[in-house]
Amino acid sequence: MHDLTPITAFGLAEPTVFVTQSCQLAERPRIALASVAARLGVDEACRAVITDLLRADAPDPAAWLASDIYSAFWMGPDQWMFSADFPDVEDIVARLKTSFGETASITEQTDGWVSFDLTGEVEAVLELVCSVDMRTRSAGYASRVSIHHTGCFLLIEASDRVRVYAPRASAGSVFHGISQAMTSAAAR
Amino acid sequence: MADHGTNHGTHHRTHGQINRLSGGQIDRNKPLSFTFDGKTFQGYHGDTLASALLANGVRLMGRSFKYHRPRGPLTAGSEEPNAIVALRSGAYQEPNTRATTAELFDGLEATSQNRWPSLAFDAMAINDRFSNFLTAGFYYKTFMWPAAFWEKIYEPIIRKAAGLGALTGSADPDVYDKGFRHCDLLVVGAGPSGLMAARTAAEAGFEVIIADEDFRFGGRLNSEHEFIGDQAGADWAASQVAHLGTFSNVRVMSRTTVIGTFDHGIYGAVERVTDHLRTSAEGQPRQILWRIYAKHTVLCAGATERPIAFNNNDRPGVMLAGAMRSYANRWGVSAARDAVIFTSNDDGHRTAADLHRQGVAIAAVVDTRADAPSAHEYAVIAGTTVTDTRGRLGLNAVQVTDATGHSRWLKAGSLGVSGGWNPNVHLTSHQGARPVWNDALNAFVPSPSLPPHMSVAGAAAGMLSTHGALHSGVDAACKALEIDPRTLPALPKADDRPVTQSAFWCVQGSERAWLDQQNDVTVKDVKLSHQEGFRAVEHLKRYTTLGMATDQGKTSNMGGLAVMAELTGQPIADVGTTMFRPPYTPTAIGVLAGRSRGKDFHPVRLTPSHYWAKERGAVFVEVGNWLRAQWFPIEGETHWRQSVDREVLATRSSVGVCDCTTLGKIDVQGTDAAVFLNKVYCNGFAKLAVGRTRYGLMLREDGIAMDDGTAARLAEDHFVVTTTTANAGKVYQHMEFVRQCLCPDLDVQLISTTESWAQYAIAGPNARALLQKVVDAEFDISNDAFPFMACGAITVCGGLRARLFRISFSGELAFELAVPARYGDAMMRRLMDEGEEFNVTPYGTEALGVMRIEKGHAAGNELNGTTTAQNLGLGRMVSKAKDSIGSKLSERVGLNTEDGLRLVGLRPLNPKDKITAGGHVMSAEGPVNAAHDQGYVTSAAYSPTLGNMIGLAFIKSGSERIGDRMRLVSPLTKTSVEVEVVSPHFVDPEGERQRA
């Protein structure tokens, strides 16, 4: 076992949280991520593995879904991002490679992204930071969005709960942009 | 709480509201105190600044732009040209706001502008005496000579003399937001048609946004004495708003001006969140710029009343008749206790009746029509016009002239003028459609070529009766959303009197008759424009500045067009209109910027070692959005060169560590990964062995070098490609294009992993020794086991997964170590701890740059979008044995001339001389000019290794000129340095160090 201590994207040991009267934005540092891209000609086999892992058809464009272990969202044609809340985030690639075999290319993404959970009156906040229409979108919706000029993924978990995946290096800027919007929304 | 520069004021003498009438939609239980030019007044909740000032007997609210003539409000809305004031104070002060739309709040502080020393006595009013000289085109004709005077003398004087308010010079302390909203139906305007359109859509279950610039919905219903069904119009409007409020699918946005129509059903709308508040909460935005995505839009923007031009029609107290009605009915205010109405249509008579009902004495209704309707309560003078007015700082008499030319003066403090109404077509024209002339209305109406999915209802569509507005609102919503109108309840009864409008724009014989009151354009100016040949409508606008003020000519354009039409003998329809453009009303620059200002102008990207570097006192530099450590000063160093020289020497003599995470990393997998890379790189990759890395050069389709980097083969079907920091996104995009569009039959998958890995360059003769202290023992990194350009997956520090690449940018024995980004901070600290015995030195981008120049490695300065592999001295890398992107076009004759540019090194003959990047290279003798240019310097640095400056340059036939003496010149800085052309590889040209 190595002896190096990880830090969050904010340079801290503990996750960063920002709270207003109506919302909370919380960093979730222990989410394991890996991208899954179907190999050419075996996309059906790849989808079959996804169905097996998620107990549902592979997510369509603009969608995400979850099983008891994994959740996944559509990232591009024949490409999905898998996530899992493992005790050891290091496991995800090995586990997925075992499941997918030669049907997909798996790439470690855990440290490429930082995960934020925004909960509460999220519509009033999100309408200030990105163009997702929370009034017509519902749980299960996933989209690439631009927050504070930064490309992110947004997953709607419920009308009062969304997850944002932001590039790790830009975590501070994205967090700043959302927290400003939270303050603004709370003050309106 | 932020206090917005308002007057907390001790109460000074309170002026009585001498012109306050009964009634109105103001709350008399909520008196408000405010100041205008330092005097304290009182108004009521629901007042605007203009209505409150009028109530207090203040008609004079501003001075005109050019002649500094006294001005009062002409209108009661956002079309106001005259009553322009500055609101609040200190850094919060905002100039050029309209008193007619400024919502009154307790403590509001307003000041007049464009006057000196006071509003009542303005020294610049002398301009009015010289009006004969200050006609249209005055500046163009007068300030021609001498040309040099324009910038330094004329322009500053003109700017000081003419204009509106002034900026404070302080940064805007308010915050602004931008946001996004979506709807099935956007209703622009909440008058009778807008309310019905919104209600129809809401009841059918559609997502609706209804926006209105006013703080009170209802549009003209708030200004009229009329009934809808058995309710007063204003009460009906309030009940509809309350009804809309019960729908969760409706968003009611008051104080929100839709300022522009844009592509794809997107509308810009500015919501004024705190402008009506004395203070705002911490973080509360002053305004929000909404981008509204609407599937359908109904424009219900109403109509603007048009004035009639006659001599001296601009005195305070002269107003549009509909505005007088608004002040009387909505705010319980009159501009004076007596009034004359001058009208060319029936609408003026409504004003007379309403004012009379409110107790204002009507001296006469002057109607241009011979068949004007009569009235019992006051005199109606038919077939007559108003020909002049009197009153120094405000109206006190009106000259009336009948058809025989007989004139007389009527005493009155206010004059209501009505020339009919113009539909507000502006938003229909923002995408290029020009409005069309309607003979029945004598007005322009929306073009049939509306923006996609927009329809127009109510007065904006030319339906000038309330009945017509209600019905057209319902119809528009039904058509847009395919609602069956038969399912809807019957509409209440409303005013359905026929509306006729005559074409009466200007009283014959008028000269100093104002058309554009904000820009001081008169009938005489239009005549001059015509006389001098500026007859086309766009020329008229620019020559006279008609319609170019902040009100965009909402009350003036039609009058100007009509006068020009008469002069040219054309119908108005043939004169045409100028183009309406966003924003519909003046918009603060701050709200266009939103949060993107100062340090929030763009996001930043932090490297995994950022917090550690900050602790070390690193100086950071922005590289794209990345913040990279530029150098690490230590105690005693007072100049950046000291730090950089030390970092270079320490690295070359022992070991240095640099965070190179910012280089793009693209994960390339698939059974055809090698074939794919063979396509995108000009050099061969198909046979690269697993565990090896290769330098690669990518060309654009046109054969020009695009980017360079390395590709490491981690497995048969797995590569990691690195790119330059600047081109990471562009290269990834390019590779995806190749994958998806050019090579869809290849089994290859791409994804960026730039941020997943913290990557550190460990360079210098002790690099291996340092690494051996952190790399786990089972991994042999000796030169034999892990030679130059090797790569592989390893573990460090007792089991942390990592990747190791033996590549060198500095030219030293070097490795790049990658660990998961969250361990980047700990890894850097460990390297520093373990490296103490080697005096390990962190180095930044400056030292990195110096060492790569010393080594002769190309970077962004050399890959500058104009250079080829040949230019870079890498021509042999372009493989002839395969087809790769750009390889064929790189063979073009023009790119392969014998005297083509080649990358060389330069050193000054005098070691103290400076090499300047951007300087041009000339032959040792001969002229210095572009015709004799031999090339240019791309990169330069002081080399602490060599003890003098060095440079990289592209020189014609450069590789054949090694040893030549040339001149490096910069004519701009008048420098000329003797240089010697040398190999670009200043340090270790044989590469022995990096292979050690």
General description of the model:
The complex is a heterodimer of chains A (188) and B (996). Chain A contains four helices and eleven strands; from the N terminus they run E-E-E-H-E-E-E-H-E-E-H-E-E-E-H. By secondary structure, chain A is α+β, with helices and mostly antiparallel strands. Chain A has a single domain (17-188), classed as Probable tRNA modification gtpase trme, domain 1 (Gyrase A, domain 2), CATH 3.30.1360. In chain A, strands 1-2-8-11-10-9 form a six-stranded antiparallel sheet, with helices on one face. A five-stranded antiparallel sheet of chain A has the order 4-5-6-3-7, covered by helices on one side. In chain A, strand 9 and strand 10 form a beta hairpin. In chain A, helix 3 (122-129) packs across helix 4. Chain A is globular, with a radius of gyration of 17 Å. The model of chain A has no long low-confidence stretch (mean pLDDT 96). Chain B is α+β, with helices and mostly antiparallel strands and 996 residues long. Chain B folds into seven domains: 2-129, Roll (Ubiquitin-like (UB roll)); 176-303 and 423-487, FAD/NAD(P)-binding domain, CATH 3.50.50; 307-419, FAD/NAD(P)-binding domain; 504-568, Arc Repressor Mutant, subunit A; 604-662 and 754-865, Probable tRNA modification gtpase trme, domain 1 (Gyrase A, domain 2, 2-Layer Sandwich), CATH 3.30.1360.120; 667-751 and 876-896, Alpha-Beta Plaits (2-Layer Sandwich), CATH 3.30.70; 898-996, Aminomethyltransferase beta-barrel domains (Elongation Factor Tu (Ef-tu), domain 3), CATH 2.40.30.110. In chain B, helix 11 crosses helix 13 and helix 17 packs across helix 22. Chain B is elongated. At the A-B interface, strand 3, strand 7 and helix 4 of A face strand 9, strand 17, strand 33, strand 41 and helix 21 of B.
Unreliable residue runs of chain B: 7-14
Largest sheet of chain A: 6 strands, antiparallel
Report the CATH architecture of chain A: 2-Layer Sandwich
Strand-pairing-aware structural class of chain A: alpha+beta
